[in-house]
Every structure is written in C-alpha cells, then in structure tokens.
Amino acid sequence: MSRGFNFSSGPAVLPEEVLKEAQAELLEWSNARASVMEVSHRGKAFIAMAEESERDLRALMSIPANYKVLFLQGGATQHFAQIPMNIGFGGSADYIVTGQWGQKAVKEAKPYTNARVAATGEADGFLKLPPRDTWQLDSNAAYVHYTPNETIGGIAIHDIPDVGNVPLVADMSSNILADTLDVSKFGIIYAGAQKNIGPSGLVVMIIRDDLLGRPTAPMANIFKYSAQAADGSMLNTPATFSWYMAGRVFKWVARHGGVAAMGERNRAKAERLYRYIDGSGFYSNPIEKSARSLMNVPFRSPNETLDEKFVKESEAAGLLALKGHRSVGGMRASIYNAMPIEGVEALISFMQDFAAKNG
C-alpha cells in the first residue's frame, strides 16, 4: 500500500516530514527513554516542549504580548458554548453566519448569551456572503463572532471585518496558519487542530488579556479561560500527543517560509483548481467567486450518478476523501497547508481523464 493524496476536510492531511519525525521519535522522545505519549505533562521535557511550541506559534503569527495562547481540549464545537460562557454571559453577542458552522455556533451560544444573527447568507443558500451594508451590529454587544472559512460550503470571508470597538471572535479551525493576518484586530482566535495544526483532540486559542477578566457563567474552573491561562493550559492532563504534533507542525511551517509562504502556496493551489473547474465545461463550483475558499473547494459533475462514480474511481486512484459533505453532496477537495501542489495536479489530471470518459 502507498500513501494517497488525502483531501479530507478533517482530520486532515499532515506534512509527511512531520509524520516521519513523529515516527522516528515514537518509542523514545527527547532523551526521555519513553514516548511523548507516556511521559508526564508536568515533567521538564514536556514543559519545555510546550513552552517552545507557544514561542514558535507566537513568532509565526506575530502574536502581541497582551494575548495569551492556550492549548485546550474539546474541539471547536465545545468552545461555541465556552466562549459565551466566558466573555458574553448574561449579555448579547452578534453572529455573522455564512454557513453551517456559524449556525451551530449560534445554537450553542444561546443558553449563555443573547446570540443575535446580525447577518446571514442563508437566503442565498450560503452561496454568497451577506453584503456588509446589511450587517446589523450592536455597538454594545459583548463580541462579534464569525467563521472566516466554512469547510462544508467552501465559502470564505477573506478580509478582517471592521466591527468597531467590539471584540472580534473568529473560528479559524480551517484557515489558521493558512495566510498572514493581524492578530491585534481580534479579541479571540480559536481553532480545532485537525485541519492545519495537527491531530484532533487539541484546540488552540489566542485570547486578548482584557477578556480574561470578564464575569463568567457559573462553571467549573476547567472551563474558565482565565484559570487555564493562569495554569499554562494544564489544569488537567492536556492532549499531550496532539500538542507535541502541533509543535512539530509549527516548526515545519517555519522551515517552509512561514505563514506568508503558506499563503502564497495556498492561493496558487486554489487558483489552479478553480481555473480548471471553471474552464472544464464539465465541473462546476456554486460559490460566488470573490468568496471562494482557499482551503475547501466543492465541485460537482453534471449529475449525481457521475458524482458517485467520481468518488469511487478517485478513491481507487489514490485520491482520498473527495466525497462532499452529506448536506451538500457532490465532491470537495480540502487543500490545507500540508497538501502539496503535486496533489492538486494529480486531482486535476484525474478530473480531466474522468471528464473525457464521461462527458
């Protein structure tokens, strides 16, 4: 068996270099004479690795000193609830909804804050972004939440919205480290690791210091961001292997030119794939061109029968996990940082052959 090109939306492709490093260190890590999965998270070796991974991420993203970096658990979905519990309890919060993950974030927030849908693309089937002049933002809101990249529909907000003095909260699970951005324009950035950072089980959160002082919902310390920040994200045993792998991925990004270089490569991959789709006369992508995702590219053939055939044959050809989300159908190619341009070229070559045989 040989490795295929993995287009899964998450858990997603990891850099092969990082996988080989982990393989070499799996039995004995950092002179510990044991695996990183077997050593204490409070031991000197793990603490040193954890601190180094934070420094590396801070350098990659130019994170200002007045932000804490937390390595948490629960997946981004858990933090749909934890964020309002920590910074919006008893008040109101605005949500910009551009897809299903935004919808879920609103639903999970409602028990803890007055979660208002300030803008939504639902009327257009989430194929377009809601125009900025339709956004009904409240200057007294506790925060404004949005999802810059929606993995299911393949739609993205490419600029950073101006929401005034209200803290901007972004679920960057599928686009963190994918391009440069100004962290200082956000109150919170959070991301499930399993798309651009590492294995599932870890959530990375970047949170501005002043937000840690807000009144919270009644809850255990384990759910309080302030308590996690005070204890170095180690109130309980963290996801040690996922944290270790994240640190390796941070170093891989740095070795390959940093976040700016990732952005250049990601744009090149996406532009190449969209250009072929648009010019093929066989495949289609429904998303408004200015809002197309660089990370998740949905596409369809002329009919569902051919879609099913495409998924089956592409899998046999070593192009993995191209089936679209069950709610939208078709196909979807997730081309995160670790997907090499060779994978995109292999996909396009297969698409050309399939279209020639089935057109």
TrEMBL record:
Q: Which residues carry this modification: N6-(pyridoxal phosphate)lysine?
A: 195
**Is Cytoplasm set as a keyword in this record?**
yes
Query: Which pathway does the database say it acts in?
Result: Cofactor biosynthesis; pyridoxine 5'-phosphate biosynthesis; pyridoxine 5'-phosphate from D-erythrose 4-phosphate: step 3/5; Amino-acid biosynthesis; L-serine biosynthesis; L-serine from 3-phospho-D-glycerate: step 2/3
Compartment(s) where it occurs, according to its Swiss-Prot or TrEMBL record: Cytoplasm
Q: Entry's SUPFAM superfamilies?
A: PLP-dependent transferases
Q: Which residues bind L-glutamate?
A: 9, 42
**What protein name applies here?**
Phosphoserine aminotransferase
Supply the gene name. serC
Q: Which cofactor does it need?
A: pyridoxal 5'-phosphate
Q: What does this protein do?
A: Catalyzes the reversible conversion of 3-phosphohydroxypyruvate to phosphoserine and of 3-hydroxy-2-oxo-4-phosphonooxybutanoate to phosphohydroxythreonine.
Residues where pyridoxal 5'-phosphate binds: 76-77, 101, 151, 171, 194, 236-237
Per the UniProt entry, what are the Gene Ontology biological process annotations, in alphabetical order? L-serine biosynthetic process; pyridoxine biosynthetic process
Note the subunit structure.
Answer: Homodimer.
- What Pfam families would the database entry show? Aminotran_5
| Organism of derivation | Ahniella affigens
